């Protein structure tokens, strides 16, 4: 039984007639979210930087009988963002749900080793684009009487992720037998999303727009492959397994639905038991 079949039996119709935009949704977590939303009855807009990837994802989901539409969108491009919202409104008449999922992580290393150019790129995609997408979506969601904005952060937002790499000791402070590589700048950008969630939630609460965040742990996706390929990857996860993308999608769908009608300004950490905070 695939994720679509299992979720369809339980949640079919929970997002009926809602219009949802999911960025970076041609693969991985974004694709799983788009699929779950469509299974639950939403009209879903798939978007990604490359049109061929968008078309491929749309084709796969339509083959399952799901109602989806695709728009090419690089979230850091103002023209692309404007076109994403325009095409969505033209196609479905408005927007009820925005999921800001796009992220970049071009380097691994200590935060102070990050170059200014790489720092700018990470924050351009991971933070600034999320802020601008929310800013541009809010008036459209307000016109529908309210809805939901969901940011996708990471467990790295609470504690920088350590990636196990080559089996070479570095110094006495590094675990013997393997090298630690901190995802420093990426982690900082994901921390900012936690604060952005709280701030935007306060701004929009009177408009009946709920704003929440999901912080996944290690998920079996191409984006996270370098983080989980080593044997030490599961050491900090009590469940001793990776998350599947559809498990994160289930949390996002909950936050987008009326089942979460009294939740705003919160971050749910889906980490397999890895501690994020008290």
TrEMBL record:
One of its GO terms (molecular function) is carbonyl reductase (NADPH) activity. Pfam families: adh_short (PF00106), adh_short_C2 (PF13561). Belongs to the short-chain dehydrogenases/reductases (SDR) family. PANTHER family: DEHYDROGENASE/REDUCTASE (SDR FAMILY) MEMBER 4, DEHYDROGENASE_REDUCTASE 4. This is Dehydrogenase/reductase SDR family member 4.
């Amino acid at each position: 039984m695939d994720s679509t079949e299992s979720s369809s039996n339980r949640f079919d119709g929970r997002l009926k007639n809602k219009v949802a935009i999911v960025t970076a949704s041609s693969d991985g977590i974004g694709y799983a979210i788009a699929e779950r939303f469509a299974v639950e009855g939403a009209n879903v807009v798939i978007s990604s930087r490359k049109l061929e990837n968008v078309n491929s994802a749309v084709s796969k989901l339509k083959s399952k009988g799901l109602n989806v539409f695709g728009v090419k969108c690089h979230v850091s491009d103002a023209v692309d963002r404007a076109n994403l919202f325009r095409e969505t409104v033209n196609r479905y008449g408005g927007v009820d749900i925005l999921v800001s999922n796009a992220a970049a992580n071009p380097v691994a290393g200590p935060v102070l080793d990050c170059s200014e150019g790489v720092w700018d790129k990470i924050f351009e995609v991971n933070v600034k684009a999320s802020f601008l997408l929310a800013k541009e979506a809010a008036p459209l969601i307000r016109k529908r009487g309210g809805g939901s904005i969901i940011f996708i952060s990471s467990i790295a937002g609470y504690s920088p992720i350590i990636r196990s790499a080559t089996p070479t000791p570095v110094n006495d402070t590094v675990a013997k037998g393997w090298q630690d590589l901190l995802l420093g700048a990426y982690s900082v950008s994901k921390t900012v999303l936690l604060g952005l969630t709280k701030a935007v939630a306060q701004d929009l609460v009177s408009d009946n727009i709920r704003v929440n965040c999901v912080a996944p742990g290690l998920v079996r996706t191409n984006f996270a492959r370098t983080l989980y390929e080593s044997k030490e990857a599961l050491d900090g996860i009590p469940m001793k397994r990776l998350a599947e993308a559809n498990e994160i999608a289930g949390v996002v769908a909950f936050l987008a639905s009326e089942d979460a009608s009294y939740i705003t300004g919160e971050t749910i950490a889906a980490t397999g038991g890895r501690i994020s905070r008290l």
